[in-house]
Amino acid sequence: MTAPTSDTVIRVGGASPYDVVVGHGLSGRLPGILGDTVERVAVLYAGTLGALADPVVDALVEHYDVLALGLPDGERAKTAPVAADCWEALGEAGFTRSDAVVTIGGGATTDLGGFVAASWLRGVRVVHVPTTLLAMVDAAVGGKTGINTGAGKNLVGAFHEPAGVLCDLSLLESLPREELVAGLGEVVKCGFVADPAILDLVERTDPAAITWDSAELRELVERAVRVKVDVVVDDLRETGGSGGHPGREVLNYGHTLAHAIERTSDYTVRHGEAVAIGCVYVAELAALAGSLPPGLVERHRAVLSRVGLPTTYDAASFEELHAAMKVDKKARGSQLRFVVIDDLAAPRILAGPREDDLRAAYASLSPRG
Ligand SMILES: NC(=O)c1ccc[n+]([C@@H]2O[C@H](COP(=O)([O-])OP(=O)(O)OC[C@H]3O[C@@H](n4cnc5c(N)ncnc54)[C@H](O)[C@@H]3O)[C@@H](O)[C@H]2O)c1
Ligand SMILES: O=C(O)C(=O)C[C@@H](O)[C@H](O)[C@H](O)COP(=O)(O)O
Ligand SMILES: [Zn+2]
């Protein structure tokens, strides 16, 4: 299949509407999004990705005073000292409320850069240019920003919606295969909680054919972005859904265990890989609670492993992971809460599952039990 050449514009409604654009070669759209009241633009980019950031900076210097700030790679960017360095640089350059931030990188960069934009002068405009599949379908969209602390993942942050998101699929050409596969973890998550057509597409496509320039990848990106957009327009700040739907928390499917795995592995396990393991875990938990048929648990394993994602884990004991899960933001007091599904696209919250079930679900995917 050949991907369409025109851009797809997905509108995110709400109090501060913006567009997520999916296409190829999109940096020319930046001035139109930033507007002509902006004088200075800070480009916060993953320092290893200078070759991707340079053309964007070149396009911006024709219109603005540009401050380019290279960040540590990956999760090492999501720390308080890195945010503080950015605040210092913005202060020295005299950034005001009419100036703006552009982020270029994966989800770690958009999370850190989004947080800097949210906190500088209590909020300046930010446009995200995601360079990983995961950041295109998830991290750059929806306004969640944040950093990690010693106590856990994403524990400090803010909701700060971008002024625009440019998903330039051509930027994925240099993305290592294992990073593209990690992004599919969040895509498949969207398939289970909201859009089963994603699962059908992944199951009928040769995984090797899911490449940066394929029509299949583009359809997966657009479908996953629409899932996220539909959720965040109704529950931007994660205060809850209606009619039994978990609201924005649905996007946290698989994330309670995932974040515990990331933290206890010192972030050596990729986020998307941890999400894959976490999705199998909550499927097992839902089956133990009697709500998810065994066939759907196996479908989790099959579709995730088909694209090369892990569905087992043995690098930590249940006790270590259980302790780490307690700092999850969905927890209330000492009660853990999980997003589970009762069927495809039928999510709900499972509050306070029995510790025996938590342990048994882990034993089903780990020899460490
Ligand atoms: N805010 C949200 O809503 C949200 C949603 C999902 C995930 N996240 C966060 O996103 C982070 C994970 O994001 P990620 O998977 O993009 O990881 P990442 O940002 O760590 O990037 C992964 C690696 O890919 C490299 N890379 C990025 N783009 C590249 C390209 N085009 N070519 C070559 N190499 C490239 C990076 O340098 C890095 O080494 C986690 O911190 C997670 O918590 C946030
Ligand atoms: O946007 C959301 O809401 C999500 O939960 C998307 C997740 O994929 C993402 O990993 C997010 O950063 C997790 O948020 P957290 O609140 O659990 O830290
Ligand atoms: Zn995630």
Bound molecules: nicotinamide-adenine-dinucleotide, ligand LNCXM5UN, zinc ion
Q: What's the β-strand tally?
A: 11
Round the Cα radius of gyration to an integer and report it.
20 Å
SS content category: alpha/beta
CATH class of the largest domain: Mainly Alpha
Distance between the first and last residues' Cα: 44 Å
Structural domains: how many: 2
What descriptive keywords fit this protein?
binds the ligand O=C(O)C(=O)C[C@@H](O)[C@H](O)[C@H](O)COP(=O)(O)O; binds nicotinamide-adenine-dinucleotide; Dehydroquinate synthase-like, alpha domain; 2 domains; alpha/beta; 13 helices; seven-stranded mixed sheet; 369 residues; two-stranded antiparallel ribbon
Question: What does this protein structure show overall?
Answer:
With 369 residues, the chain is an alpha/beta fold. It folds into two domains: 8-174, Rossmann fold (3-Layer(aba) Sandwich), CATH 3.40.50; 177-363, Dehydroquinate synthase-like - alpha domain (Dehydroquinate synthase-like, alpha domain). The protein has 13 helices and eleven strands. It has helices at residues 30-34, 50-61, 80-92, 107-119, 133-139, 177-193, 197-204, 215-234, 255-264, 271-288, 294-306, 318-325, 355-363, and strands spanning 8-12, 18-23, 40-46, 65-71, 100-105, 125-130, 144-149, 152-159, 164-168, 337-343, 346-351. Strands 1-2-9-6-5-3-4 form a seven-stranded mixed beta sheet, with helices on both faces. Helix 5 (133-139) runs parallel beside helix 8, helix 6 (177-193) packs across helix 7 (197-204) and helix 6 (177-193) runs parallel beside helix 10 (271-288). The longest helix is centred in the middle third of the chain and has 20 residues, at 215-234. The model has no long low-confidence stretch (mean pLDDT 97). Bound molecules: nicotinamide-adenine-dinucleotide, the ligand O=C(O)C(=O)C[C@@H](O)[C@H](O)[C@H](O)COP(=O)(O)O and zinc ion (ZN). Keywords: Amino-acid biosynthesis, Aromatic amino acid biosynthesis, Cobalt, Cytoplasm, Lyase, Metal-binding, NAD, Nucleotide-binding, Zinc.
